[in-house]
């Protein structure tokens, strides 16, 4: 049974609240909020905005899944950012170097990417499990370090190639590319959407149907109870962190294998942090994360249109920020209301509508 | 003695919580200089009532008057100002401070920090029979002394009315006698006590008046000298009291669990938390472990469950063909799969996932076994169906199996756990405090289920602080003291007092 109220009410409340708050910001800056929102909405039907929104959402979805796997185990993997960039540069270099038949080439690149992402998450995982070092600290530090690693690897003296003024890795051969889905005028959809969908289903199946998923959730909720039930918290922390890193390794792949074919110094950053917000918004549920990713991508893509009517596009950033803050608060409020309602329901059970006496098993 | 003035009067107190009325129309009158017992089963509403009197919670209806004045107690500070103090069941002391610092902490305004405070403290220590040096750290004190420090703390803040919340729960019989002696002396000095308990013999020996609470409301106030224990018990339960007694012996000669020379070192030192523990539990036998809490029982249970790693010794468990198999090196899951059921002492920490539905909790510990799993994949449908069966068979009061475990009351949570652990066809059940904090109905049911399982050949290792439960259920009792099994008792002949002296080590030389 899915409790729709618990699932849908908080994000709806959060979005409404965020719209109100950004309306205030718009009014203060002298703009008409309704006009601004209408422009953003209309932008969706201009040119290739819709498809590029979905393409961006695919990337955010992968980052969101990576973060959500960590959240399930109470691991706060801020390092999705560093893990995906490390994986991207390694996969781009190895992918350009490899010569394999078409499908095999792609699979090999994806495996390298996942392996690299997991590898970059290994150090924080080991430090957390064996030394109790907070993964928040170690992954943030590794996020900074990755900048240096990328710069080093893309240097022409190592694996880089200089195109005009821009440094990047060598180009991946057509056999290693994932063909897009052409939608004519509207643009080309990343073929990676199929893989992202499968990954989302796999994530859902793992959590609800497999023993591993059960152990992960149990351990994330209560390490002690899980330990008494025969689940090692250490093993689960390690597994969650590595799995999160492996999925993070895929974050840059839609763009690398579907559009750019090289990884450059100028490649977009920050997907990892967006992933955390998206997972939070989607409450770690595969469908919720998809919704969060689409919303985020829409705000990012349509914000550009605000400039045309003289409104700073940063208003979209304000909305994103307030959505994250208010969704956390809203979930907590609805959760508490639900628990109280449930206790009342338990209290009424078998009492013909009367509250249960304490001695009869009512809660105190 | 003529009828003295009532000092505390509670009239028509009602307190509602989501889903339950914890107190409804409670009336309580306490006179100056008496020991007034408030009696009732676990969960009857005693604690809520005392929290209201101590200002920790506000009643929805009703009035409180102290010394003839109607007062409004918004917080414990108000209660202290009105002369009411409370000694909590779980002590509120800072272990790393000395006795004097603990008493003065937060009450520096009364007598300062210097000589005057010291003199007052000495006087109160004398009065309450606290013999510990005021400069010792509290962590070095025993439970009985800590309790006295709590009493001194309350008196130092000027309380004349002292609430003792289940003060004897943590004490052995000898310490209880000493506490009662102190209470009697202080009563003659004019202090008033409100004594919360559900132990009838204690209530009858110390109280001048008894008010009985049942299902959140006052059933009546009686003179303990004129009623029998049986009458009191019936007032409390509303029917006949359940008894933990097991009838005929079902002990076989087939060992199920054999522990030999088990040793566990403390995390931070060479000190042994368990030292050379050896015992055997046979099929159809309940082996009870008695002991003051903190003497290694928890560690013993967790070592047998594989949650702690033994430093030395072996644990063997009978496998399907009855042969003992060494399980010392196995992890918790493998031990559970080998046939150990586990009722943990702290069900919130070790027994349940509070934010998961009941059926999800049915899987915990059984995630590799039928019917809820095939080893790798979980079957939520089967888990739901089997949880419905447990709910039915073990009388778990819930509207359905989708309810979060945290929404159930303690008794119903425990029934769910017992049902789960007995569903895995265990050969050995480890039950740590199986009826702690559960209501009478659940207690009777849990005892009944354990007895039935024992009759079917289950071996049970029972750890309990409730001596009546231990004596009533066990076939053999072993006493644990400072990590060692020091003596053995026959539950057919032993009395709680004898068991109590063995638990403190008083009987060690004699044995």
UniProtKB/TrEMBL annotation, chain A:
Primary location: membrane
Family annotation (Pfam families): BPD_transp_2
Topology relative to the membrane: Multi-pass membrane protein
Family annotation (InterPro entries): ABC_transp_permease
GO cellular component, one term: plasma membrane
One Gene Ontology term of the molecular function aspect: transmembrane transporter activity
Localization terms from the record: Cell membrane
Keyword field: Cell membrane, Membrane, Sugar transport, Transmembrane, Transmembrane helix, Transport
Regions that span the bilayer: 12-31, 51-71, 83-100, 106-127, 136-154, 189-207, 238-257
Name the record gives this protein: Simple sugar transport system permease protein
Protein species of origin: Prauserella sediminis
Automatic annotation (TrEMBL), chain B:
Protein name, as recorded: Simple sugar transport system ATP-binding protein
CDD domains on file: ABC_Carb_Monos_I (cd03216), ABC_Carb_Monos_II (cd03215)
Organism from which the protein derives: Prauserella sediminis
A Pfam family reported for this protein in Swiss-Prot or TrEMBL: ABC_tran
Record domain ABC transporter: where: 8-240, 257-507
Keywords: ATP-binding, Cell membrane, Membrane, Nucleotide-binding, Repeat, Sugar transport, Translocase, Transport
Protein topology in the membrane: Peripheral membrane protein
Superkingdom to which the source organism belongs: Bacteria
One Gene Ontology term of the molecular function aspect: ATP binding
Keyword Zinc appears in the UniProt entry: no
InterPro entries, per database record: AAA+_ATPase (IPR003593), ABC_carbohydrate_import_ATPase (IPR050107), ABC_transporter-like_ATP-bd (IPR003439), ABC_transporter-like_CS (IPR017871), P-loop_NTPase (IPR027417)
GO cellular component, one term: plasma membrane
Chain residue ranges for the region called Disordered: 492-511
Coiled-coil stretches noted in the UniProt entry, renumbered to this chain: none
Major localization listed first in the record, in broad terms: membrane
Localisation per UniProt entry: Cell membrane
């Amino acid at each position: 049974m899915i409790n729709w109220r618990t699932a849908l009410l908080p994000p709806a409340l959060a979005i409404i609240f965020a719209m109100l708050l950004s309306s205030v910001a718009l009014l203060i800056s002298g703009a008409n909020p309704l006009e601004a929102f209408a422009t953003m909405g209309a932008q969706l039907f201009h040119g290739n905005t819709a498809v590029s929104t979905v393409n961006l959402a695919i990337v955010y979805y992968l980052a969101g899944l990576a973060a959500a796997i960590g959240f399930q185990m109470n691991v706060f993997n801020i390092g999705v950012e560093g893990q995906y960039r490390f994986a991207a540069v390694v996969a781009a270099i190895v992918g350009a170097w490899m010569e394999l038949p078409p499908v095999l080439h792609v699979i090999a690149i994806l495996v390298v990417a996942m392996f690299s992402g997991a590898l970059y998450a290994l150090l924080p995982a080991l430090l957390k499990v064996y030394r109790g070092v907070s993964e928040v600290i170690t992954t943030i530090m590794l996020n900074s370090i990755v900048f240096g690693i990328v710069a080093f690897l893309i240097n022409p003296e190592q694996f880089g190639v200089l195109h005009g003024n821009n440094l990047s890795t060598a180009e991946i051969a057509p056999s290693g590319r994932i063909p897009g889905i052409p939608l004519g005028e509207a643009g080309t959809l990343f073929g990676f959407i199929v893989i992202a969908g499968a990954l989302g289903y796999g994530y859902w199946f793992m959590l609800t149907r497999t023993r591993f998923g059960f152990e992960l959730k149990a351990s994330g909720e209560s390490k002690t109870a899980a330990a008494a039930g025969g689940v090692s918290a250490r093993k689960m922390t390690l597994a969650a962190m590595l799995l999160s890193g492996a999925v993070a390794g895929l974050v840059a792949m839609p763009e690398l294998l579907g559009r750019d074919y090289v990884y450059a110094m100028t490649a977009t950053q920050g997907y990892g942090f967006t992933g955390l917000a998206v997972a939070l918004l989607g409450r770690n549920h595969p469908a919720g994360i998809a919704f969060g990713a689409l919303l985020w991508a829409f705000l990012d893509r349509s914000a550009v249109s605000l400039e045309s009517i003289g409104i700073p596009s940063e208003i979209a950033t304000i909305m994103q920020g307030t959505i994250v803050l208010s969704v956390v608060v809203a979930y907590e409020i609805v959760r508490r209301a639900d628990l109280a309602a449930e206790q009342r329901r338990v209290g009424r059970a078998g009492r013909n509508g009367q509250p249960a006496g304490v001695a009869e098993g009512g809660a105190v | 003695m003529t009828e003295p003035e009532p000092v505390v009067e509670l009239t028509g107190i009602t307190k509602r919580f989501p889903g339950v009325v914890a107190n409804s129309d409670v009336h309580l009158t306490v006179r100056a200089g008496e020991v007034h017992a408030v009696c009732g089963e676990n969960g009857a509403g005693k604690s809520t009532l005392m929290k209201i009197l101590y200002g920790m919670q506000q009643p929805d209806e009703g009035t409180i008057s102290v010394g003839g004045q109607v007062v409004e107690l918004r917080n414990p500070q108000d209660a202290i100002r009105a002369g009411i103090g409370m000694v909590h069941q779980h002590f509120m002391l800072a272990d790393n401070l000395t006795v004097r610092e603990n008493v003065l902490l937060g009450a520096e305004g009364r007598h300062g920090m210097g000589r005057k405070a010291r003199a007052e403290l000495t006087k109160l220590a004398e009065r309450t029979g606290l013999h510990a040096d005021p400069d010792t750290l509290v962590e070095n004190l025993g439970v009985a002394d800590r309790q006295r420090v709590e009493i001194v703390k309350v008196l130092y803040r000027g309380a004349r009315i002292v609430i003792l919340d289940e003060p004897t729960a943590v004490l052995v019989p000898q310490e209880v006698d000493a506490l009662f002696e102190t209470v009697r002396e202080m009563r003659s000095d004019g202090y008033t006590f409100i004594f919360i308990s559900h132990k009838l013999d204690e209530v009858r020996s110390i109280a001048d008046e008894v008010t009985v609470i049942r299902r959140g409301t006052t059933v009546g106030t009686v003179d303990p000298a004129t009623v029998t224990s049986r009458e009191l018990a019936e007032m409390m339960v509303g029917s006949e009291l359940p008894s933990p007694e097991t009838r005929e012996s079902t002990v076989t000669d087939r060992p199920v669990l054999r522990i030999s020379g088990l040793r566990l070192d403390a995390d931070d030192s060479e000190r042994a938390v368990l030292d050379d523990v050896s015992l055997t539990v046979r099929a159809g036998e309940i082996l009870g472990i008695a002991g003051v809490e903190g003497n290694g029982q928890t560690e013993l249970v967790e070592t047998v469950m594989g949650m702690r790693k033994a430093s030395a010794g072996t644990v063997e468990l009978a496998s399907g063909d009855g042969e003992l198999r060494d399980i010392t090196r196995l992890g918790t899951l493998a031990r559970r799969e080998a046939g150990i059921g586990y009722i943990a002492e702290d069900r919130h920490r070790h027994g349940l996932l509070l934010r998961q539905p009941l059926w999800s909790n049915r899987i915990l510990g059984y995630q590799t076994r039928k019917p809820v799993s095939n080893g790798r994949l979980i079957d939520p449908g089967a888990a739901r169906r089997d949880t419905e069966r447990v709910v039915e068979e073990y009388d778990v009061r819930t509207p359905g199996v989708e309810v979060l475990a945290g929404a159930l009351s303690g008794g119903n949570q425990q029934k769910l756990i017992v049902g789960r652990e007995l569903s895995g066809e265990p050969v050995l059940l480890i039950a740590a405090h199986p009826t702690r904090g559960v209501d009478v109905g659940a207690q009777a049911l849990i005892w009944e289920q354990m007895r039935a399982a024992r009759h079917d050949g289950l071996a049970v290792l029972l750890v309990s602080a409730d001596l009546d439960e231990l004596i009533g259920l066990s076939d053999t009792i072993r006493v644990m003291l400072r990590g060692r099994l020091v003596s053995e008792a026959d539950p057919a002949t032993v009395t709680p007092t004898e068991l109590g002296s063995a638990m403190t080590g008083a009987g060690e030389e004699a044995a």
